[in-house]
Amino acid sequence: MDVTQQPARRLPRLRHATGFSLARVGALVLRYLYLLRASWPRLFDLIYWPTVQLLMWGFLQIYLARESGTLAQTVGVLLGSALLWDILFRGQLGFTISFLEEMYSRNLGHLMVSPLRPVELIAALMVMSVIRICIGLLPVTLLAWAYFGFNVYSMGLWLVAFFLNLILTSWAVGLFVCGLLLRYGLGAENIAWSLMFLFMPLACVYYPLAVLPGWLQPISMALAPTHVFEGMRSLLLHGVVRPEMMLSALGLNAIYFAVGALSFAWFHRDARLRGQLLSLGE
Questions:
Q1: Mean pLDDT of the 154-175 span
Q2: Is the pLDDT confidence value at 160 over 70?
Q3: What one-character-per-residue DSSP string does 236-274 give?
Q4: What SS3 state is found at 149?
């Protein structure tokens, strides 16, 4: 028979493919929390890098404020940018690291043949990314308040809008990266650690959009984090809120999340067709 005439391969329907169980999501989250509780190096790593970054930008900001009266007006912006960047970066990393730990322990195949549904696994990864951010950033925000006099919570409810948009972007990127890991295994691990840095120069984390050349600005505006960082600078420097920017970011994030979810679903199906789920991590 000609290969082109062979019927398309079909995957057997998952027996557990009905219903969404919060209990299964909670059980998986509990498993990840036990891993964190039992390993102080994991907890230390969550706090270490945000603290180092805060100290670096905090001292730089103090230096700039002493050297220039104009730059003194930007007090808080650099620290605000550093903290919001950590939400974006740590959110994606927290999502992906939990997934990678399943691959390191060769447990992913066991999860996939258990009653746990892929959407429940994703929900657990989302919860863990938020928990990891809270563990890493809450002490750092208090340190910024106590030592550098920058209170990130003074942004009020707008901080919630910033956080929501950044965490949605991080989840969308995390879904795409986890899909790549399903398809290419640990050979794609470096992408998990480095992909988010592609956003750093384009999303105008530490400088305004106007700094970019004209041809690059539309590309930057197509990134949801750009709207968040521009909105934060407008709030901290001028006291002006930009709700239209948050709505634009939310719309972009809806597209990103749909693309990320579809990518994960496609890579997951492809991994099942290839029989890779039980060999991941090798």
A1: 93
A2: yes
A3: HHH----HHHHHHHHHHHHHHHHHHHHHHHHHHHHHHHH
A4: coil
Closest residue by Cα to residue 172 from 102, 229, 255? 255
Residue matched to tokens 């938020």: 130
Tell me, rounded to whole angstroms, the distance of Cα 204 from its chain centroid. 17
pLDDT tens column, 91-119? 999 899 889 888 888 888 788 878 888 89
Rounded-to-integer distance, Cα 146 and Cα 233, Å:
22
Backbone dihedral region of 106: left (phi > 0), alpha (psi from -120 to 50 degrees) or beta? left
Residue 21 confidence (pLDDT): 86
Tokens read off for 44: 């230390």
- Between vectors from CA 158 to CA 168 and to CA 48, what angle results, nearest 5°? 65
The per-residue pLDDT of the chain, averaged, comes to 85
For tokens 């036990």, what's the residue?
A: 34
Alpha helices in 3-117 (DSSP H): 22-37, 40-67, 69-72, 77-104, 108-112
pLDDT-above-70 percentage for the chain = 89
How many residues can be counted in the chain?
Answer: 282
Q: Does the predicted TM-score (pTM) go above 0.70?
A: yes
d(CA 151, CA 143): 9
